[in-house]
Every structure is written in C-alpha cells, then in structure tokens.
Design brief:
single chain; about 200 residues; mainly alpha; Tetracycline Repressor, domain 2; 10 helices; about 70% helix; globular; Tet_transcr_reg_TetR-rel_C_sf; HTH-type_TetR-like_transc_reg; DNA binding; DNA-binding
Length: about 200
C-alpha cells in the first residue's frame, strides 16, 4: 500500500494535470501560465515545477493524459480500421480528468511555436508508431504481403491524418454531414478508407 506522502503526491499531480488540461483546452499555449494552473489547482506554483519540471513537460503529460492514444491502440483486439472507425463515434476516453475535449487542446496549441513540435512528437510516437506496429502485426497474422517499415509508417501516418480530419470536422467544426445521425452509413465508409490506407491490395 502506498505511503501517505506518496498518495498525497499522486493526488497533487492529478489535480495539476486536471487544472492544466482545462487551461490548455481553453487558452492558447502561451496564455496558459503555470501560476494560473497552480491557482486553479489551489497549490503553490513551486509544486507544479517540482511535479513536472517545466511547462513543456506538463503539456506533454496533459496531451498524453487527454488522448491516451498509445493505450487505446495497444489494447485493440479488432483490426485497426474497424477499431478506429468505431472509436471515431465512440471515443474511449478516460474521464478521470473531467470532460475536456482533447481536440480543443490541439486547436488552441497548433499555432504555437513551442507547442506544435510537442504535438508533432506526440503524434509520431504515440499515434503513428503504435498504429504502424499494430498494422504490421495484423498484416503478418493475415498473411498479407510484407511491407517495409517505412511503407507501414507512411500508411499509418495517412490513416492518422484521415482520422484527425474526420474528428476535426465532427468535434471542432461541427459539420453535420459527418454527425452521429449518419453513423450507420459513415462507419463502413470510414472503415473502407482506413483499410485502403493501411493495407496493400491483395
């Protein structure tokens, strides 16, 4: 059983993450100040530095906690195109940190010279990398033609770009043409698009 000090430290870290997630979702990266995050979490700003080291590292942890992409991908049991098409309509998000839409964090941060590289690295490491690994496993198990690592990564990047665009249309731009009421027609189409992106023709 964790010691009281460890439990307190973990609870403080979670409070900081929750406060930071809300700040980064509602304000541009440069305007989300550590002192404001600390005030929202009702702690001294020194504790934020102690727990995360820097604003950049805190943002990294916020993005990972908000999206949980690697965990979601690695726990998939269905072929990637099926799981991703389903999760576009039924996102598997842990609401431990409140009802923050992860895409709001992306929208607020894309124009930031400091935050954009962090988002890029996150997509490469926590999204494209796991998609490529999962796709390689599925192709091997299905006896599909072998692809080079670079080719699989290219296909994973294309699939990730397709999914990101669809999610932006749905959650940020609120375009009805890809809304929930069209799921029955759209989900098979999305699955086909992702399958074409991820797998070579057989």
């Amino acid at each position: 059983m964790p010691e009281p000090a460890q439990r307190s430290s973990a609870a403080t870290r979670q409070r900081i993450l929750q406060a930071a997630m809300i700040r980064f979702a509602r304000h541009p990266y440069e305007d989300a100040r550590l002192r404001d995050i600390a005030a929202d979490a009702e702690i001294d700003v020194a504790m934020v530095h102690r727990a995360f080291g820097s604003k950049e590292q805190l943002f990294v942890e916020v993005v990972r906690a908000a999206f949980q992409a690697r965990t979601s991908i690695e726990e998939q049991t269905d072929p990637p195109e099926q799981a991703f098409a389903r999760e576009i309509f039924d996102p598997l998000l842990d609401r431990t940190f409140g009802r923050v839409d992860p895409m709001d964090i992306v929208v607020q941060s894309l124009s930031s010279a400091q935050a954009a590289p962090i988002l890029r690295d996150f997509i490469l490491e926590d999204v494209i990398g796991p998609i490529a690994a999962r796709t390689a496993d599925v192709q091997r198990d299905a006896g599909r033609p072998a692809l080079t690592s670079e080719a699989i990564e290219e296909r994973a990047a294309l699939a990730a770009a397709c999914m990101t665009g669809i999610v932006l249309f749905r959650q940020v731009l609120k375009i009805d043409l890809v809304g929930d009421d069209r799921r029955e027609r759209l989900e098979p189409l999305i699955r086909a698009v992702l399958s074409a992106a991820l797998h070579p023709e057989t």
